[in-house]
Every structure is written in structure tokens, then in C-alpha cells.
Amino acid sequence: MSVVSGQGRTLRAGLIGLGAMGRNHARVLSNLDGVELVGVADPAGDTTGTVRAPVVATLAELIAMKLDYAVVACPTALHEQVGLELAANGVSALIEKPLAQSVETAQRLVAAFESAGLVAGVGHIERYNPALQNLRSRLEAGELGEVFQVVTRRQGPFPHRIADVGVVMDLATHDIDLTSWVTGREYVSVSARTVSRSGRLHEDMVAAVGQLTDGTMVNHLVNWLSPLKERSTVITGDRGCFIADTLTADLTFYANGAIDTEWEALRAFRGVAEGDMVRFAIPKREPLLVEHERFRDAVEGKDSDIVTLRQGLRTVQVAAAVLQSATDGSTVSVAPGDRTVGDLSTTG
């Protein structure tokens, strides 16, 4: 049974989607303080009732349960349809990433929830990974000095749960969002190449190079074709580099050691030297639980760090630029802010 929330009542939550991620959401919602999971609907027609809440046949039936908010964990292609219906009925929503399949669809969702004055967020769960949370705090404190480069690697076997988007929208959106969030900078351009080796309609491997507003270089390697599962973020700067492993939630720092030299020819060369290595001991709470706690607090009207729909839209815009670059072989400039897809211009 849920504990009464800070506002004096228990929030009524619903869940749309009973796939792999949906069942994880159901597990967390069923034990979340201040929240009661009152019902579940699955667009694929799963009415098995294997979660700890009634499973209804339609979204309309779920909305009729007087929800305070809903978690949208159905396929990306259905996010717009489900999200617009929730917004029209005054239901706040936490929508799984990516926010939508296209920039235009994402913009319609932003407009619907903002015009209704509802709390809405996107489930970019990597923001709540302990290693990245700790890394962001250290970057904000200036521990790395000037940031030069962000490199991410996200690879592993093909997830059979995914059928409606490729690796760019499904996996690379994690890296796009976390890179902007950790550095506090936006993308200004991207150049990418994709391949499809699995025989599916969508791409299953992408290599992308980008630039952020402060000139930081970004590299992303993402695929569904590797037997090795890897989730790595490496940020290199003036004082060394941080390596965040989001599979284990470990954060390691490799310092740039200062070594004096009497060799005149090398004195003017700004190089690096191997210094101390530190693996930080950090608390490791489950990212999905933290994400739900933050969203619950936002619904209650408290100050809370959630991924807003506008931030989710921005990530979709950058992902669209990656796909455009891969299609026409160009470097694509990404306009600042939350502009339309028409503001993605091609250079070079």
C-alpha cells in the first residue's frame, strides 16, 4: 500500500504498455511512496493481468479511473495518439523515450500538454544513473577544467522488443540527451553514417560526430550488432578524463599528471602525462526509481528535476539531424532552441 503523499493524498497513476519496459514501470509504481497504480492498458491487447493492478482493454477505460498521471510505455509510434488523448483529458504524463518518431509529432505533444497546463516529462533514464549524476556535479564544480571531448559507446545485441524505430531514435537518443545534460551545452552540428546489417527496415548501427555550443567535440558509436554490451561515457578535459560506466554505475577519474621536464624542446608542448586514477564510491540507487520519484514530486507541485517535453523535443531534433546527415552525407547544422525540422540546414 502506498504512503500518503506530501499533499495529503495518494496520487492515482495509470500505465500504458506492458512490454519489457512497461513491466519495469509497473514494478516501481506498485511500490512508490505516495502513489497508487490503479490501472493498466496495453495497446497490444495484453490483458493477462500479471501486474499488481487491474488491466483494462482501452485507454478510455483507464482515463475513466480518474488518473492524476499516466506513464506511457507503449511503442514510440503510438506516443502521439496516446499522449494527445491524455492531454485532452487533463492527465499529466511521463512518456518513455524517445518522445516521438519525428520532430513534428514531438512538437504536437509539447503543444498539447503545455496548452493544457499539465506536468509532462520524458523517460530519459540515463540522467538518473548514479555515475552520470555524480559526473555532472563534478563538471559543474570545475573538477575537469575546460571540457574538450565527449565520447559515448552504447552497443549490444539486438533487442527484439523494438520494431518501430532504428538504433538512432531508440539508443542514440540516450547519448544525445545525456551529453547535453551533463555538459550543459546544446548541439550545433552533427555528421553521421548508418548501416543496416540485420535485414530490418531501420538502421542498426550509427557512428556520429558532433559539436556543442562551446566547441566541445562529441563522438557517438551506437549499435545493436555486438555480442559485447557496453555503456560508456568518456569526457576528456584540461585536467584529465572521467569514465562513467552506466551498466555498473561506476565513475572513474584519470588525472592529467604534471611532470617537469628539462628538455627545452618539450617545454612549449602542451601535452599530458599519466597521473592518479580514482574510482569514486557513490550511492547506487535504481535510476528508474529515482526517475519516478522526481516525476511524482513534479506532479505534486514540488520543485523537481525532470526531463521536460521541450528537452525531449530537442533530443528528437538532434536525432533527426543525425538521420538526415546519414541519408545525404552532409554535416547538418542544428538551430538553437526548439525550432522546427525546417531549421535543420545542410552545410558542406
Automatic annotation (TrEMBL):
<dbReference type="Pfam" id="PF22725">
    <property type="entry name" value="GFO_IDH_MocA_C3"/>
</dbReference>
<dbReference type="InterPro" id="IPR051450">
    <property type="entry name" value="Gfo/Idh/MocA_Oxidoreductases"/>
</dbReference>
<dbReference type="InterPro" id="IPR000683">
    <property type="entry name" value="Gfo/Idh/MocA-like_OxRdtase_N"/>
</dbReference>
<feature type="domain" description="Gfo/Idh/MocA-like oxidoreductase N-terminal">
    <location>
        <begin position="12"/>
        <end position="124"/>
    </location>
</feature>
<dbReference type="InterPro" id="IPR036291">
    <property type="entry name" value="NAD(P)-bd_dom_sf"/>
</dbReference>
<protein>
    <submittedName>
        <fullName>Dehydrogenase</fullName>
    </submittedName>
</protein>
<feature type="domain" description="GFO/IDH/MocA-like oxidoreductase">
    <location>
        <begin position="133"/>
        <end position="242"/>
    </location>
</feature>
<dbReference type="InterPro" id="IPR055170">
    <property type="entry name" value="GFO_IDH_MocA-like_dom"/>
</dbReference>
<dbReference type="Pfam" id="PF01408">
    <property type="entry name" value="GFO_IDH_MocA"/>
</dbReference>
